[in-house]
Amino acid sequence: MARELLVNPRKPINACMSYLRLSARVIRPMLKFSKILGGTAVALTLMAGASQASAGTLIDDWSYEIQAGFVAFTPQPAVSGSGNNGDLPAPFTNAPTVLSWGTGDDGPSQLEVSKEVISTTGGLFTNDLSGVNGALLTHRNRTIADGPSLETATIFAPLTLTPFSPAGPALEAFDIFFNIVFEETANFGLDGNPGPGAGDCTPGTGNEPCADIFVLQNPGSLSTSFILDGFEYTISLFSEDLGPLSDEACAAAGADPECIGFITPEGMVNTLQTQFNITARAVPEPGTLALLGLGLLGLGIARRRKVAA
After folding, report:
1. pLDDT tens figures, 151-160
2. How far apart are CA 108 and CA 173, in angstroms?
3. Which of 47, 191, 231, 269 has the least CB density, counted as fewest CB within 10 Å?
4. Residues 29 and 70 in one domain
5. Same domain, 43 and 166
6. Do 197 and 50 belong to one domain?
7. What are phi and psi of 302, to 5 degrees?
8. Residue 75 belongs to what domain range?
9. Where does the record place the Ice-binding protein C-terminal domain (predicted)?
């Protein structure tokens, strides 16, 4: 050994240097991989934290209270109001629940909205699309003499929700308005003569005697949303009796094509039962969005490091 060192004293040093260079080639990629892995782990941790932060408490059952009244109608005094609802909040306290117009053998034609306060303890389940019953609208479509008749009406229907499960305080009432246009059609077709085939009713409104036409002017009022504890809740109102009308029926009522409304046959008591449901989806809060953004940024940096490596 001593002789080998004397002959070639640099051999051990060269061997050590070769070993160090080999180690560097192995360790350097491992360090880069470790940095990439660490960045990815941090990004995923931030994103997981964002997901957890966005999950609040879902209200899965609600109590509710809804009532209604007519807060505007035309023309007056040809159309009169009665059956005042004293339970409505100001400034609409004592708004009428029955509108009457015209004269006929069976009395005036009438449009009525349920006066009673509809109130329940629980029973409105989140994401149950079948929903629950709301206000009931009734049209007593009686044959009346020619003269002024209902043209427009606005229904005010405040809805109050109270978390039932888990329990919580009542939310501020949602003030819902329905703007209605009404067309009192000629009872016996366009020529005014009685009998089938004597004159054409408005297409899409049935046979003679001609049905009357209701159009909802603000169908956007059928849906409203709010955010509570990390969830966006959407209240949707609907009715099996409400739907698209023929373009001719829309035009007869002075509405645009593809309007939404319902048809009421002459000489009958017609009802429209409103219903509503509530759905929910999780939404991130502002702080959660920041965490999510940092997580995505971390993933981007980690990816660039990987590409560069």
Report:
1. 999 999 999 9
2. 34
3. 191
4. no
5. no
6. no
7. -60, -40
8. 61-282
9. 282-305
